[in-house]
Specification:
This protein has a domain of 74 residues: YebC, transcriptional regulation domain (Alpha-Beta Plaits), CATH 3.30.70.980. The strands form three sheets. A four-stranded antiparallel sheet has the order 3-1-2-9. By secondary structure, the protein is an alpha+beta fold. Strand 5 and strand 6 form a beta hairpin.
């Protein structure tokens, strides 16, 4: 399983705690408002906004919170002006990290990201050092016990499925369905209309190559840096290319 998928799983497991302290919901609301300001407040006409709203729903954000964020973005000419900036670097073990920030203060974002790298054994790199390793992709996760690979292909191939892989050990714990970024919502809709439950869907960055991490000590360092970056207020997403065996991941996560 790619680093992205494993890290997403870890974050979902601790999502309830994040929501209690408000950090996860604040980040999702920021994403909704920024997407609506750029492309309009109608999710049907703004794929980036539709993706942001779906992420909020998958995180169990109350409907009222989502609607307030949309109304605020649609009716406000002022407020913070967010811009997306990226930082690139390496975690221990040679793991590539591509950090996406949504910020109204570039200096603050840069200082926070730099501090997270420096304090946790990582190193920032020049622009272009790792971004070529990642490709923007639509990803939908489906519980493997709820459908077969054939079920998924029959239901979603015409809607835009590009690949289906089974994630996890043994029989696997989920299917990862990939699409072109513009097709992720259409594929999710097709799967759900066929009665296939979806755990989550998003547009993300998947690595073309992965770095195997087989030592617990290095795995701890990698996850510690990811946690530190995730705690930065301006960081929206951290994309990585680590591959840690499930037994080691569970032992250190």
């Amino acid at each position: 399983m790619s680093g992205h998928s494993k890290w997403s799983t870890i974050k979902r497991k601790k999502g309830a705690a994040d929501a209690k302290r408000g950090k996860l919901f604040a980040r999702l609301i920021r994403g909704i408002e920024a997407a609506a300001k750029v492309g309009g407040a109608d999710p049907d006409a703004n794929p980036t906004l539709a993706d942001a709203v779906q992420k909020a729903r998958d995180a169990s954000m109350p409907k009222d919170n989502i609607e307030r964020a949309l109304k605020r973005a649609a009716g406000s000419a002022g407020g913070a002006n967010y811009e997306t900036v990226y930082y690139e670097g390496y975690a221990p073990g040679g793991v590539a990290l591509y950090v996406e920030c949504l910020t109204d203060n570039r200096n603050r974002a840069a200082n926070d990201v730099r501090a997270a790298f420096n304090k946790n054994g990582g190193s920032l790199a020049e622009p272009g050092a790792v971004n070529y390793l990642f490709t923007r992709t639509g990803v939908i996760l489906v519980p493997s016990g709820k459908a077969s690979e054939d079920d998924l292909l029959i239901a979603g191939l015409d809607a835009g499925i590009t690949d289906v892989t089974q994630e996890g050990e043994g029989d696997g714990d989920s299917f990862m369905v990939t699409t072109e970024p513009a097709d992720v919502q259409n594929v999710r809709k097709a799967l759900e209309e066929a009665g296939i439950p979806v755990s989550s869907s998003e547009t993300t960055m998947l690595p073309s190559v992965t770095v195997a991490i087989t030592q617990e000590s290095v795995a701890k360092q990698v996850l510690r840096l990811l946690d530190a970056l995730d705690d930065c207020d301006d960081v929206q997403n951290v994309y990585s290319n680590f591959d840690i065996p499930d037994d080691i991941l569970e032992a250190v996560a």
